[in-house]
Amino acid sequence: MNEAMQALLRHPAIWRGSGCSAVALPSIPSGHAALDAALPGGGWPVGTLTEILPQHEGIGEVRILGPALARLSQAGRWLVWIAPPYLPYAPALTAAGIDLARLIIVKTQNRRDAFWALEQALRSNACGAVLGWMEPVPYPELRRLQLAGEGTNTLAILFRPPWAVNASSPAALRISLQTAAGNLAATIVKRRGGAIAEPILLQPEPAADSKTNSDKLASHVMDRALFSAAPPGSVAACAAF
Amino acid sequence: MLLARLSEPWAAAEGRFIADCNDAAASEGVRAGMTRAAARALCPNLSFKERDFSAERETLERVAQWAGRFTPAVSLAPPFGLLLEVAGSLKLFSGLAPIMKQLEHGAVQMGLTMSAACAPSAEGARIMARGGIPAFVLTQQQLAAAISCLPVEALDCGEETLAGLQAIGAGNLGDLLALPRAGLARRFGEELLDSLDRALGMKPDPREFYIPPETFRAAIELPAEAEEAQALLFVFHRMLVQLEGFLAARGGAVQRFEAGLLHREGNTVLEVGLVSPSRDAEHFTMLLRERLFAAALKAPVRAVALDARDILQYVPETPGLFPDPQGPRGDWPRFIERLRARLGQDKVKGLAVRAEHRPGFASQEIEPGSKSEKAHFGPRPLWLFAAPHPLEEINSVPHYQGALTLLSGPERIESGWWDGMDVARDYFLARTPAASLLWIYRERRMLDARHAWYLHGIFG
Question: What is the pTM of this model?
């Protein structure tokens, strides 16, 4: 298709049945090209609730947010993690590029306090990103969180268990994560512009290439030119979650 | 219950006689000067409180501290009066009317009824306010006309003089002013003329200024035991308004204050801390509300106290010249203060990296915004367990929700012999059958005969 046709089809008033409509939403680029292409606005939506539903704990549900959180914290915005299931480990966060001086962990005793903290964080419009782990969350509370974050500059992420996929939710974006043959597969369950059925394959996990051993072995090799280490601070090095 | 009690009829008694009563009692006909028996006959459910002169004096002083926000020249005119010289503040407050409005608003917030008057002389203003004439007199000529209708008792002359004035038929100050001055001086002495001249502003009337103390302390005894936090907040709000005035007078701010609750036995102290120094009474009230609701009251409260000791310099926030390109920002310090007030100081933390080989010590909880040390580590999990979880070993393969496959490693960490918490471990990345990534280690020293493999963290 020629350029004029492409430009015409990108007009926001035209809805295409297959792809998602090109809505101008404020978003933060996620750092994964395949995911950005599938998201309306080209990244994680700001000012609305996003749900991430991992199949199991530990398949990389927080890792996929790594580049976006790193970008926000380097820009000086605050990151607030509310009621995380375990205490985050600082070296892993610095390896991902997150500035620890901008991170706040809020530990709550019960679900009511966690919900209150989430609502306050969203309403205050003072945070760059708010990550919440809270279950069970009934629909009215989700709606309140969605309204609290409306119109703010905050990236609001709620982590929910896999069985919540079938429950209805007012969140603007819902992504379910599974693993498929060593890759992380993200299925967009709900987004502005229609869900897509095929999962999006994200970059393979960092553990698949065992960097520690190869570094140690390479240091014994005389011919150093063969060993091309990734420069520190690049995106590849950042995926060491 | 406390709030309901406050709206019942109350009277302050001095010995046998009533000194003053509140609106609820006045509507039943109780007046100052009646005996207790007469008052109770008019109003059967009247409650009495013995007049507490020291508390009255303290309240007057606290209002004087609060009034320091308008002018530094505040003098006390006991028992119930305050004199403020506002000539120098008129420019700052753009006139007299805003000052009067703020005075009234403040009095309402502090739970006091106030009658205010303005005159070119201190004594003139005092007698007008005391006599209930809320007039703004701006020149000396108008002053004479304004005070004429006041009774001669307003001048505070002695009993003999009063009796003498009544005998000659001088009922109010207007009559007194009409009499010849020489005759008055001969008959009643110079003091009467002096006080009249001071009232009219013709003689100087130097007053001692009130100097507020260095720290703020207020205590109020409750008329009834309070059990709900909401009622306590109502009383605390009054003291917080006084604190705001006190701080405004000094150009100061506080970063923490203590609210004390006195029970029948013992007392509770709630400490409220702020992220940055502030002197906003509404903000203090909001934080105290969160603290009061979070802290369960052990016993009914009889008296409350407020203490603010460290007074810091107040630095107001200056807005930037250009609008923020990312849109309007929320108030980060206020948000953190709200979280801390409600959840507790230790529930809101930041993280820092410590240059330590031992994984458990490499991450530390600190005050948010503090600096971390620079260190490089291998691949580390997002979530680290506080205590490693022992794993079952079946056929020399560690099991956690199924047989684990080792992906990479080993990373040998041996460190910490100097403080007794030494570790000697080989760390591996492992994957469960459910495709979660784990960080496990194999203990190199035989500490436990049954377990050699432990789970230390999960990759997020």
Answer: 0.69
